[in-house]
Amino acid sequence: MSFAETLKKLREDNSFSMSEAAQLIGVSTSTYYNWEVNGNYPRTDAIRKIADAYGVTTKWLETGLGEKDAKDAEKKAEEFQAKKRDEQVTTYNRESEEKLKDITLLISHIKSMDVPKERKRHIHRTLSAYRTELENVVLFGELR
Length: 144
Description:
There is one protein chain. By secondary structure, this protein is mainly alpha-helical. The protein folds into two domains: 3-68, lambda repressor-like DNA-binding domains (434 Repressor (Amino-terminal Domain)), CATH 1.10.260.40; 71-140, no CATH class. It contains seven helices and no strands. Helix 2 (18-25) crosses helix 3. The protein is rod-shaped, with a radius of gyration of 30 Å.
């Protein structure tokens, strides 16, 4: 289906006259007529106005592909972003859990190290603080 045919179908589906559709979009009736009847292709800003007026996506309006309903497309985009964030947090937590295991193992080895007691305490405190931060990430999924 051509752009002109799509535009006409949208107008008719909404029971608009050409002048009503033009007014809705904010263009003259002759401009709208040229798009729908003469097959002239509107500028990018006009495509956006048409899509907004009819509640469709610009991609669907121009190509007939993808989601037609702008709200459905927006909802799918939000769901995709949420899924991506969840995957990111899961990956981050998995990596943090591995680091936490490594730190715990290091702390247990500090006790058997042959280094001065004060140095041992310093290493233990540093690693313990790092472990606490990692535990917060694992427990609360904080991304910093």
